[in-house]
Design brief:
There is one protein chain. This protein has about 140 residues and is mainly β. About 5% of the residues lie in helices and about 35% in strands. Strands 4, 6, 7, 9 and 10 form a 5-stranded antiparallel beta sheet that branches. The longest helix is centred in the middle third of the chain and has 5 residues.
């Protein structure tokens, strides 16, 4: 069985894979993509933690090119135990461009609720069948 060889293009920072015919192709669905939490916070409009500043995550090289991003409330159970399923709502979602930028990420998330929102900015991986694997079990 032939092994897959990957290179990192120094200019674009994209992964490149050598095909069987000797040609090189850019990998948009990276076999090394892992679902992950990019950032997290607890929001609560009732106690002054209403706004989550997302500007630090708007630049290049934040996520893996070709992956997806979303902001969701994962719920207290998942916040305390990453193996627990997620129970909250999804608020925003988008793609990650070729430079690793989270396209369409808003400047901030503002909670209107006076209870704790266990928020995560997550990276999800596109699988061969088109589904997206997120870091939240069951959701």
């Amino acid at each position: 069985m032939e092994s897959t060889k990957l290179w990192n293009d120094k200019k674009t920072r994209k992964l490149i894979r050598k095909k069987k015919n000797g040609r090189l192709i850019a990998c948009w669905v990276c076999p090394c993509c892992r679902p992950r939490v990019i950032a997290s916070t607890i929001t609560n409009a009732g106690d002054g933690r209403k706004t989550w500043n997302l500007r630090p995550y708007q630049g290049d090289k934040v996520g893996l090119p070709g992956a997806r991003w979303r902001i969701r409330d994962v719920g207290e159970a998942h916040h305390n135990d990453s193996d627990a399923s997620c129970s909250g709502s999804q608020y925003y979602a988008g793609t990650i461009d070729g430079n690793g930028k989270l396209t369409g990420l808003p400047d901030e998330f503002v909670s209107g609720y006076s209870y704790n929102g266990y928020m995560e900015l997550q990276q999800g991986c596109v699988r061969d069948d088109g589904s997206i694997e997120w870091p939240c079990p069951n959701g």
